[in-house]
Amino acid sequence: MASTTDFVIRVxxxxxxxxxxxxxxxxxxxxxxxxxxSIALIELGAHCEEGLGVVIPDEDYGRLPxxxxxxxxxYLDARAVAEV
Length: 84
What we know:
Layout: H1 4-14, H2 38-52, H3 69-82
């Protein structure tokens, strides 16, 4: 089974059309890394919610630009556990 980090990278590559060359677990989602705009972060969140069956509260979206791909995956894992 693929890890949540792998899932997030796949979403970034396939759904948001980012190059695999710029993707890694340690790259930031925000301006110090991938520089994803708000709409792209919402799209990423929506795909992850649908694919992983988690809910990302609206108030948490402001935290995403400060997260790396790995930190976002860990956040999603924690949300999944909290919702069980």
